[in-house]
Specification:
It is built from six helices and six strands; from the N terminus they run βαβααβαββαβα. It is α/β, with parallel strands linked by helices.
Length: 188
């Protein structure tokens, strides 16, 4: 089983992130869910972006790095939305990562991708934060870098479709996503 660090979305460390971590733990994985903000989670995406602006990207990345400090080099880097970007940003610093698991966004192409790195993306189609052409470009860049890439697009759902506390929750898509995530982690 794997060590997984699971970074939260711009909302902060919400119950949905903790529930996802519990789901992964129930499958035998060791999961760390750092609070990158250090304050209660936001109630709206706008409040989440305001928190991120107030805290700052560098402090968020510093906290994300600190959460990795005592984890093995082969830890899977994972994240929800903004957390996917955090996971991708730290990939260059963790060249032996066992995999990159991105939920609800690409976070942009990482600077460094090890050939053969297992990467799995779960994203709404279309997604309000990652346009289809941006996802296609990201997918080409990851494939060109040699990633072992699997992309799952979920038509007609909202951005954070796995979070049951949000109006964009899509139970059928979430039900489809979680077994795929568990299979990815079992193979990473």
């Amino acid at each position: 089983m794997r060590h997984v660090v699971l970074y939260h979305s711009v909302y902060g460390l919400r119950p949905a992130v903790r529930a996802a971590a519990d789901r992964l733990r129930a499958a035998g994985h060791q999961v760390t869910t750092p609070d990158l903000y250090g304050v209660p989670a936001a109630d709206t995406v706008e409040d989440g972006f305001a928190l991120l602006d107030k805290i700052g990207h560098e402090l968020v990345l510093d906290r994300a790095r600190a959460a990795l400090r005592d984890l093995p080099p082969q830890t899977v880097l994972a994240g929800f939305s903004m957390g996917a970007g955090v996971a991708g940003a730290l990939l260059a610093e963790r060249p032996d990562a066992a995999g990159l698991l991105l939920l609800h966004g690409t976070g942009g192409a990482p600077d460094v991708v090890r050939p053969g790195l297992p990467v799995q993306l779960h994203v709404a189609d279309p997604d309000p934060y990652d346009a289809p052409d941006e996802i296609d470009e990201w997918q080409r860049a990851m494939a060109d870098a040699g990633a072992d890439l699997t992309v799952f697009r979920y038509p007609g759902v909202g951005h954070l479709f796995t979070d049951p506390a949000l109006s964009e929750y899509a139970p059928d898509a979430a039900t489809a996503a979680w077994p795929r995530v568990l299979a990815f982690l079992a193979d990473a």
